[in-house]
């Protein structure tokens, strides 16, 4: 009874945590087989991907706090929104607009892959001084971009690295345009913008 009540649930939690860490390590290594193995897209996968995204947002806030105060809660929420937006654009561009013959993938699988690809963002926790912040953020951002290209190619069963890059880069351009447009619209709403 003791084994069933305490040891078995503890063992199950340790096994899940080990699985989570394995996904992070494989993502950091840019291991393309991570995205081909259906065991990595099981029941807990969406939670693993969501947790990676939330931790990525918190790590970004920790890094930014070395220079400017950033709300950790808002950063976690922003990371979830970013996750959804990236996944949506990769899905629309890669599955609906420019699919290969073998591209048949549900949105949830893309959502999970995009979450996994953001694992390098966890390294932003190491940006503890202003001198480390910019190099670590740039390094991790390019690393995430590489992870997104690899995951997109594998998940969408694309033949070409160029096409995978194109889907991710086009998604990035759209997100960047929308972000800049949003920020500029907020700046125009500030009282200081009315001064001539």
Low-confidence stretches: none
Strand percentage? under 5%
Rg (C-alpha, Å): 19 Å
Q: What's the overall average pLDDT, rounded?
A: 88
What is the distance, rounded to the nearest whole angstrom, between the alpha carbons of the first and last residues? 77 Å
Morphology: globular
Which secondary-structure class do the elements indicate? mainly alpha
Count of separate DSSP helical elements: 6
Secondary-structure element string = HHHHHH
Tally of extended strands? 0
Range of helix content: over 70%
Main beta sheet, described? none
Please, what is the oligomeric state? single chain
Task: Explain what this protein looks like in three dimensions.
By secondary structure, this protein is mainly alpha-helical. It has 6 helices and no strands.
Short description:
By secondary structure, the chain is mainly alpha-helical. Helix content is 70%, strand content 0%.
Offer a few descriptive terms:
mainly alpha; 6 helices; 70% helix
Helix and strand arrangement:
Blueprint lengths: L1 H27 L16 H20 L7 H26 L9 H11 L12 H26 L5 H28 L8
């Amino acid at each position: 009874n003791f084994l069933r009540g305490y040891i078995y649930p503890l063992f199950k939690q340790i096994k899940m945590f080990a699985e989570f860490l394995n996904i992070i390590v494989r993502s950091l290594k840019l291991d393309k087989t991570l995205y081909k193995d259906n065991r990595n897209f099981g029941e807990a996968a969406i939670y693993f991907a969501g947790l990676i995204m939330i931790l990525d947002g918190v790590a970004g806030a920790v890094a930014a706090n070395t220079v400017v105060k950033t709300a950790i809660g808002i950063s976690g929420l922003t990371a979830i929104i970013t996750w959804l937006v990236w996944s949506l654009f990769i899905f629309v561009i890669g599955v609906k607009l420019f699919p290969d013959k073998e591209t048949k993938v549900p949105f949830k699988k893309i959502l999970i892959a995009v979450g996994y690809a953001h694992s390098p963002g966890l390294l932003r926790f190491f940006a503890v001084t202003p001198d480390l912040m910019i190099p670590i953020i740039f390094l991790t951002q390019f690393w995430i971009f590489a992870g997104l290209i690899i995951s997109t190619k594998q998940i969408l069963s694309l033949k070409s690295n160029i096409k995978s890059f194109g889907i991710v880069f086009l998604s990035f351009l759209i997100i960047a345009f929308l972000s800049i447009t949003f920020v500029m619209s907020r700046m125009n709403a500030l009282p200081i913008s009315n001064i001539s």
